[in-house]
Structure formats: structure tokens, C-alpha cells
């Protein structure tokens, strides 16, 4: 029989995209079970054209589950993923709870699908949304030219902070719309936006906020350390030098990253384009003269990472700059998790056949 899948966090903004993907991708699942905290239990949601009731997150909810996808806060994953494993499920977790655990593979299937099979804890972690978008372009270049250093600047959308982030941005835009003087004098955007900052530390409308996540070591943010540590783990380069600056921008959905990459060997823009043209899950959009750039308003709702602005550094033949953008709710979260779950479903089905 086809494996049973649980979606934990089914009622969240990423969970909603997971159900859309499960309804549109080739179906590999038997029963699909929707699980959420008690607050959401009892809701009816549609998946694969059928109405499903959301069950409460309990140990028994995992009985008979083969694969459980989690999109819940870190502390909920930390508590409940081991419970699901104890009940016989393999967990694919989209939180950061286990990403740096040496016994948990951190996977972006197009880049390192082979590590998903070694999971001594029965848990596989999916990469953070910003890492996933960026690594889709950087990994094929690493395999070709040997990556040594990354200097990154992210432009992260409001939906990275969930529906609350989206609602906050739209509310703030409504407050600033129509007043052409806003943004031209100190503090008047703050005044127009008022104290409704939502999940952000400062007004987002008509602004950029050079902060995402929580304060971590030595002034770096948790998001910046995720880009550094996750890139090292996924690419298997423990000594990779990474300097990231994560910035929140007034975009609804679509994370972008400006990438400066230094390689071991010489690289050319044309050579890099050729590599990326053949890379899985990447769309090349690189014709500045024609006004063609990778942008969140085009990438939103699509699966690939959109890559462009490819140019060799003026001062170093081993260095390349480029710009990548991707839908942080899809490849950045729901799609990557679903793809890993499908990898495991194929494993289970093959075992079942043998
Ligand atoms: C953000 N990457 O963008 C974080 C979590 N999705 O807020």
C-alpha cells in the first residue's frame, strides 16, 4: 500500500501551501492525515479534492503514519518530532530545531538528496527558506568551480514571518498610501505607521529593516548564522567563509539574495550561465538590457530559483556576483519539505516491492 503521510502544522501558512502541492503534484501517498495544535483541531481542510478533518497533535495521532512533515515552531518540533519517530514515523522537519544536529541530514534534494537516507534519529531537516533559494544556484557552481567564500545580502519578504507578517505589511502600506511627502523627512514614516509593527522591529512599508530572526553571537542574527551554518553543512564545506547580512524588505512573498562567491578556480559569466542553464530547479533570467531580472513579483507561486545579474568580479577572476530569488513559501519551505517526503516515500515503496 502507498505510505501514510501526516502534515503537522496543516493550518499554518506553509501548511496551506503543502496541501496545495499535495493536491497538484503526482500523488504518491495513501492516507493523508492533517494534524495541528488543539486550537485548530476539528477544522475541515481540502487536500487532493477531499475534505479532511484536522486532528489534534497527540502521540496517538502518529499511529500508522509512515512519513510526518512538520511545519511548526522550533520548540514544537523539538518536543514532538521524537514522539512521531517513536510511533514509527520518519519526520521531515522544516523548523531549525534539528538542522545542525550531526545525526540529522539537512537536505535540498536537487543539491544533496543522497544524504537523506542516513538518518539515525529518524529525522530529516529541510533548509531555511533563504538558504534553499540561494543554494540552488550556488551548489552547481560549487561543483564546477570549487566554492571558497560567500558574501551574501538577503532581501527577505514579509511572509517569512507568516500571515501576520503579510497582514502587517498590507496594513502599513494602507497607512502610507497617498501621502507623497512620506519618506522624505526624518520619522514621518514612523509617525504614519504608528506602533503597529507586527512581527518586525521597525516599520517595513517604505523602508528596509537590516534584521531578521533573533540576536545570536557577536552581533550576527540567527538568520545570518543559518545561511552560514546551513550552507557549510549542505555543501559539505566546513571551512567555507560566509558573511551574510539578512534584510527584511516590503515584499509580500519571495526571498532574494545578492551573492558574491569566490571559487578555487577561474570562472567566467558565460561559463556560469552554462552551468546554471543545466542546473535542476533553476531558471536563468539574465538580460539587463532587456529589463529582465530575477524578481520576487515574478518568482512568487513558482517552484524554481530565478537567477540573473551574473557577472565576474572586476578584481578577481575567481569570483562571481549574481542575484537569486525564489518563493520562500514554496521551495523555501513547503515544496522542499514535500520533495524530501517524496524521496522517502519512494524508498518505502521500493522496500515494499523487494
Ligand atoms: C524569515 N527565514 O524569513 C525566516 C523564517 N521563515 O522570517
Automatic annotation (TrEMBL):
Provide one Gene Ontology biological process annotation. 'de novo' L-methionine biosynthetic process
Q: Which InterPro entries match?
A: Asp-semialdehyde_DH_CS (IPR000319), Asp_semialdehyde_DH (IPR012080), Asp_semialdehyde_DH_beta (IPR005986), NAD(P)-bd_dom_sf (IPR036291), Semialdehyde_DH_NAD-bd (IPR000534), Semialdhyde_DH_dimer_dom (IPR012280)
Presence of keyword Oxidoreductase: yes
Picking any one GO molecular function of the record gives: protein dimerization activity
Q: What is its EC number?
A: 1.2.1.11
Q: Which residues form the active site?
A: 129, 255
Record's keyword terms, sorted:
Amino-acid biosynthesis, Diaminopimelate biosynthesis, Lysine biosynthesis, Methionine biosynthesis, NADP, Oxidoreductase, Threonine biosynthesis
Positions with a binding annotation for substrate: 156, 248
User: Per the record's keyword annotation, is NADP included, yes or no?
Assistant: yes
Which PROSITE patterns does this chain map to? ASD (PS01103)
Source organism, top-level taxon: Bacteria
Residues holding phosphate: 99
Checking NCBIfam families in the record gives: asd_B (TIGR01296), PRK14874.1 (NF011456)
* Purpose of the protein: Catalyzes the NADPH-dependent formation of L-aspartate-semialdehyde (L-ASA) by the reductive dephosphorylation of L-aspartyl-4-phosphate.
Subunit relationships = Homodimer.
Q: What is this protein called?
A: Aspartate-semialdehyde dehydrogenase
Q: In the UniProt record, what gene is named as encoding this protein?
A: asd
Amino acid at each position: 500500500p502507498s505510505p501514510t503521510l501526516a502534515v503537522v502544522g496543516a493550518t499554518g501558512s506553509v501548511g496551506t501551501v503543502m496541501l496545495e502541492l499535495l493536491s497538484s503534484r503526482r500523488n504518491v501517498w495513501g492516507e493523508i492525515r492533517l494534524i495541528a495544535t488543539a486550537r485548530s483541531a476539528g477544522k475541515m481542510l481540502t487536500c487532493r479534492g477531499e475534505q479532511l478533518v484536522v486532528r489534534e497533535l497527540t502521540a496517538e495521532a502518529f499511529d500508522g503514519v509512515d512519513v510526518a512533515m512538520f511545519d511548526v515552531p522550533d520548540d514544537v518540533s523539538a518536543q514532538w518530532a521524537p514522539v512521531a519517530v517513536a510511533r514509527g514515523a520518519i519526520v521531515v522537519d522544516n523548523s531549525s530545531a534539528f538542522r545542525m544536529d550531526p545525526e540529522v541530514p539537512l537536505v535540498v534534494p536537487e543539491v544533496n538528496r543522497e544524504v537523506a537516507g542516513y538518518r539515525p534519529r529518524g529525522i530529516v531537516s529541510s533548509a531555511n527558506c533563504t538558504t534553499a533559494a540561494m543554494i540552488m544556484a550556488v551548489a552547481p557552481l560549487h561543483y564546477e568551480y570549487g566554492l571558497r567564500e560567500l558574501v551574501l545580502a538577503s532581501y527577505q519578504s514579509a511572509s517569512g514571518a507568516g500571515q501576520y507578517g503579510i497582514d502587517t505589511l498590507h496594513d502599513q502600506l494602507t497607512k502610507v498610501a497617498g501621502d507623497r511627502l512620506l519618506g522624505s523627512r526624518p520619522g514621518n514614516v514612523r509617525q504614519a505607521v504608528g506602533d503597529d509593527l507586527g512581527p518586525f522591529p521597525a516599520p517595513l512599508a517604505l523602508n528596509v529593516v537590516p534584521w531578521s530572526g533573533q540576536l545570536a553571537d557577536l552581533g550576527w542574527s540567527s538568520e545570518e548564522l543559518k545561511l552560514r551554518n546551513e550552507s557549510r553543512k549542505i555543501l559539505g564545506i566546513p571551512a567555507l567563509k560566509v558573511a551574510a547580512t539578512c534584510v527584511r524588505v516590503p515584499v509580500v512573498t519571495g526571498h532574494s539574495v545578492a551573492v558574491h562567491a569566490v571559487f578555487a578556480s577561474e570562472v567566467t559569466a558565460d561559463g556560469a550561465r552554462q552551468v546554471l542553464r543545466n542546473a535542476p530547479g533553476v531558471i536563468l533570467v539574465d538580460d539587463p538590457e532587456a529589463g529582465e531580472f530575477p524578481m520576487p513579483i515574478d518568482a512568487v507561486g513558482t517552484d524554481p530559483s530565478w537567477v540573473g545579474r551574473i557577472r565576474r568580479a572586476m578584481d578577481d577572476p575567481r569570483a562571481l556576483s549574481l542575484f537569486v530569488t525564489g518563493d520562500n513559501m514554496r521551495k523555501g519551505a513547503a515544496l522542499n519539505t514535500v520533495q524530501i517526503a517524496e524521496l522517502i516515500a519512494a524508498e518505502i515503496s521500493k522496500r515494499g516491492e523487494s
